[in-house]
Amino acid sequence: MEVTDLRIALFSGNYNYVRDGANQALNRLVGYLLNQGAAVRVYSPVVEEPDFEPTGDLVHVPALALPGRAEYRAPVRLPGRVRKDIAEFAPNIFHIASPEILGHRALSLARRWNIPAVASVHTRFETYPRYYGLTFLEPLVVAVLRRFYRRCDAIFAPSESMAQILREQRMSFDVGIWSRGIDRGIFDARHRDLEWRRGHGIGDDEVAIGFVGRLVMEKGLDVYSDAIDQLEKRGVKHRVLVIGEGPAREWFERRLPNGVFVGFQKGADLGRAVASMDMLFNPSITETFGNVTLEAMAAGLPVVAARATGSQSLVDDGITGRLVRPGAIEAFADALQLYCEDDAARKAAGAAGCAASERYGWDQVNQALVDGYLRVVRQRVDGTSGPPRSPVP
């Protein structure tokens, strides 16, 4: 079987209506698949004004706005017209990008039609409840996720550290790696722009501690602001530069009244903003890879991050940045202080990070997933593998 024989039905709760790292990776994947001669059809909610144009053929599935997070849509069913479209497309593999209602319905359909199904893991959903005072729900979320992923032929994590977590959680017997790449035309230290910094009130000699991402509490905004408070108490000179938008922006601005908030950036503007920081501070534990971490490394910046999935596979502690126990405010402040006050250490870590980022190319990582597709389809045709027919305890 060759890549040109693949017919992939891709199911996503958010393919292009809100821009984030997961859906940008999916769009890059679809572009790569189409260029390689595979057939792809995407099933996801469609809105009138999406954040960006979709790659490939996109079929709308019904969805409702999420309570409290109206920018996101929750697919509620897989109607007859969509099932008919899938049947006419005649896929030989399903790729499910999110374990919500659409993903469950698609997986059930794949099993009914005896079509192999794989899932890609993009975030640690089981960690979300703790940011909203619902930590007691985590075991239930893990159980639901396990039931879903165990029904797939294989699952793919974006980093080895995340893959290990999935194995320890007994999510699947077949865990592969679909990593992430970097666009070196955008993320490069040469895009650093002192005039841009000055325009936002950041002096040439000021050390800018950056944040990049959606402004939502599950990104660790509380830990970020608490660590910055410690720097203030210690009298460490710094500036905070926040790149991104989201429902928690007002809260974050109140917590960091001296921070520079430049809003959502994309393309060359994003590359310039990242390169114009002096370090990235990423306290989040929800990422399975950490696109922003890799982008900062490619721009020649040291990274201070939580010792968690994603960052753990990217940051070489003491070489390209510092890894800190999640939630350890004082330790985060220590690492940030080091890079604020030691120019040589900051530059050395940034240079090492840039060098380390060179092994991440989009074609290579997408081809690894294509190889995974082909393996799963061949194994199903040969009758040598498939998901358990009943839940495994």
Could you characterize what this model shows?
- This protein is an alpha/beta fold.
- It folds into two domains: 3-181 and 361-382, Rossmann fold (3-Layer(aba) Sandwich); 189-357, Rossmann fold.
- 40% of the residues lie in helices and 17% in strands.
- The chain has helices at residues 21-35, 80-89, 101-112, 138-150, 160-168, 194-199, 221-234, 249-255, 267-275, 291-298, 311-314, 329-341, 343-357, 362-382, and strands spanning 7-11, 39-44, 57-60, 63-66, 69-75, 93-96, 117-120, 154-157, 175-177, 208-212, 239-243, 260-261, 279-282, 303-306, 321-324.
- It has a seven-stranded parallel sheet with strand order 3-2-1-6-7-8-9, sandwiched between helices.
- A hairpin with a 2-residue loop joins strand 4 (63-66) and strand 5.
- Helix 1 packs across helix 14, helix 7 packs across helix 12 and helix 10 packs across helix 13 (343-357).
- The longest helix is centred in the C-terminal third of the chain and has 21 residues, at 362-382.
- It starts with 6 loop residues before the first strand and ends in an 11-residue tail after the last helix.
- Residues 20-183 form the Glycosyltransferase subfamily 4-like N-terminal domain.
